[in-house]
Amino acid sequence: MIKTAEYIKGLTDLKDEPEAKPQILLLGRSNVGKSSFINSLTNRKNLARISNTPGKTLILNFYLLNDTFYLVDAPGYGYAKRSKSMQDEFVIILENYLLHSRNLKFVCLLIDFKVGPTKDDLATYEFLKSLHKDIVIVATKKDKINKTLQKKQEKVIREILGDPKVLIAISNQTKENIKVVSDLFESMVEEN
Predict the structure, then answer these.
(1) 5-191, what's its fold?
(2) DSSP-based helix, strand, coil % in the chain, nearest 5
(3) Which of 12, 43, 100, 107 has CA 20 to 30 A from 59's CA?
(4) pLDDT tens for residues 154-171?
(5) What is the largest CA-CA distance in the chain?
C-alpha cells in the first residue's frame, strides 16, 4: 500500500536523475488518465495536476513513493496539437531514458479500457517489447463500460495485445483494483 508520495522533480536529461532508487515508468496516450491514476494510486487529490488540456506534461516527472521507489510520469503520446519538433524532442528524451536508465525496473503502459488499444498504444507496446522491457498493462476507465460487458471488453483487449503477461483493469473513480496495482508495483520493485 502506498503510504507516502511526494513530487521530487521534472527533468529532460538523465544526468539530472534523483538519487538511485528503483523506477517505474508510466506511459500512455494523452487523456488516458495518467494524472488521475497517480492521484488514485497515492490516495492524494492533487499530487499530479489534472489538466483540461491533454498533452500538458512535457518532461519526465519523478514521484517518490513510500521512500523506496519512483513513479516516473512521461508525457502522453498521440496528441496532435503538439508541434512536430516538440514530439520529436520528447521521443529522443524517452528513448534515451528507456535505453540508459539503470534504475528502470519496468514500464506501466496505460490504455483506455473503453476505447481499447489505439494504433499509438500498439506501436508503443511493440517498441517496449523490442527493448525487452517488463510491461504491466493498466486499463483505465473500467467504470465507463457497463458491468455486463466488462469481461468481454477485457477479452478483446487481451486478444489485441496478444495476451500480455499482466493486464489489470482499474477505475480511478471507484478505486477498483487500485490496491491490486499498488501491491503489484511494490512486489515487482522488491523483486528487482
Answers:
(1) Rossmann fold (3.40.50)
(2) 40, 25, 40
(3) 43
(4) 999 999 999 999 999 999
(5) 49
